[in-house]
Amino acid sequence: MEVKSIDWKDGKVVIIDQTKLPLKETYLEIKDYRELANAIRQLRIRGAPAIGIAGAFGVCLAANGLDTVDYAEFKQRMNRIIDALAATRPTAVNLFWALDRMRKIIESNNGMKPNDIRHNLLEEAINILDEDRETCRSMGEHGASLLKNGDKVLTHCNAGALATGGIGTALGVIFTAVKQGNKIKVYADETRPLLQGARLTTWELMKAGIDVTLICDNMAAWVMQQGLINCVMVGADRIAANGDAANKIGTYNLAVLAQFHKIPFYVVAPTSTFDLSLKSGKEIPIEQRASQEVTEGFGKRTAAEGVSVYNPAFDVTPNKLIAAIVSEKGICYPPYKLQT
Ligand code: MRU
Predict the structure, then answer these.
(1) Best of 46, 133, 317 to mutate for ligand 1, by most ligand atoms within 8 A of CB?
(2) Which of 14, 102, 143, 195 lies in the 20 to 30 Å Cα band around 74?
(3) Which domains, from first to last, does the chain contain?
(4) pLDDT tens, 79-103?
């Protein structure tokens, strides 16, 4: 059974608290959209498709909490709340994509009773979740054709079930290839500073019985040079029309190293991660996070008091380093002219 990162149950959003993994498998039941917005900000729920789904359910929580029976007032207050949910994290476009779908429900239900709109909003949020499950399945099938029995795959951050509503993006491909009978070995980057690779990817893969070895981020070049890697497979948070792909900080390093070692570098992401309004990756907003994540990650100070810190949460891999982009629609090869 795959891990369920997020679900809707009895008027509440249920998420697995990813900040507690792998030590504790704790589930949070969230009733208030402000609490959900905080959970997104604090990475209790994280990963591009999963935060889109969370945003959509956040809209449902907010709609249920509004007492008005007047359409105009409902729309005005909901639009403000949707803006607040959109302000939680800036890079993964899936959040804005999902919130736009929710906004469109309110627009197209023009003049209807808020009670009926609430029902339609919930239906749309559940569609977003269900579609993502199917999208992951389809990406897995397409992507598995890039892998062969015995392959050794390096991955970064967490691009698994925890990051989506289904089996994951890059890890979804690995789960599918293994299910098809291939023996795949995974090397998981630790992923400084918040250790999504060490805490989440290894946990998910071990739970699924997949051979995984954890390495520190700065070991990747050496591991490649030793011939231990056949390909790099990662997810993405936003992909521009020319194929430039933003993903967790450290991904670009791997793409450069992969090119030097003549190893294919693949990106796996649903079309809800494509931002065709952006010509290139230069336009992708990069989230900057608190310096404490670097100087005292997990509560223990590891850098000199008062040191200045640069902590971008994402980087952009230029399209020319990407051998293929896998989406639910199929596999794109360079030169990229992405469509949805
Ligand atoms: O800051 P995070 O943990 O939300 O970053 C997530 C990633 O960078 C993932 O690799 C990305 O969302 C793609 S996988 C669905």
Answers:
(1) 46
(2) 14
(3) 6-137 (1.20.120.420), 142-339 (3.40.50.10470)
(4) 999 999 999 999 999 999 999 999 9
